[in-house]
Amino acid sequence: MADRTDSHLTPAVFLDKDGTLLENVPFNVDPLQMRWTAGAQSALRRLSQTGMPLIVVSNQPGVALGYFIQSELRLVEARLQRMFASCGASLTGFYYCPHAPHRAAGFSCTCRKPQPGMLRRAARNHGVDLSRSWMVGDILDDVEAGRAAGCTTVLIDNGNENDNGHGQKCERVPECAQYARQRATFSCRGNHRELRRLSPRSVRA
Ligand SMILES: [Zn+2]
What we know:
Blueprint: E1 13-15, H1 40-48, E2 54-59, H2 70-86, E3 91-97, H3 102-105, H4 117-126, E4 134-137, H5 140-149, E5 152-156, E6 176-178, H6 192-195
The structure holds zinc ion.
Residues 97, 99, 109, 111-112 line the site of zinc ion (ZN).
């Protein structure tokens, strides 16, 4: 039962937004300040060629902290859709956690990464097989959320994650570390066979 693959479900790629797809502008909801990170456009073009749904999952504690209201995130989503379209890609879903970090909130939500709630909700909504899906992010909270959801994880090595890797729980160790995004090529710490699934020619979504 646990190993059964649901053939009607699709693999997907979950993408972190700030620091991964876009330059990190803290608490930004101004569409005019949304800019691609280096290499993101070419990576997105390549990912779109796999045919897999592309779903953004983003922590947005600025809602709970009172920096902006949720409706402003709809402008962010609309701008993101246009940016994806400019790369020939389609944004299948935009999920965000509006809650504050647990210590500040005084309660634990299940959606703020490193919790896997956003990925699980997106999977239910879009018929996604999490076990065949990928989570791509720039910090270990993204990796941990992806692993908790059962995805294969990619950590973009752009300097945003300062953890030196020692003493990590296994849930925070990525399957793959991605370098040289400008060339849209991938290096890998672990599973090359799995990594090749990202190649458009070999993916059957
Ligand atoms: Zn949350």
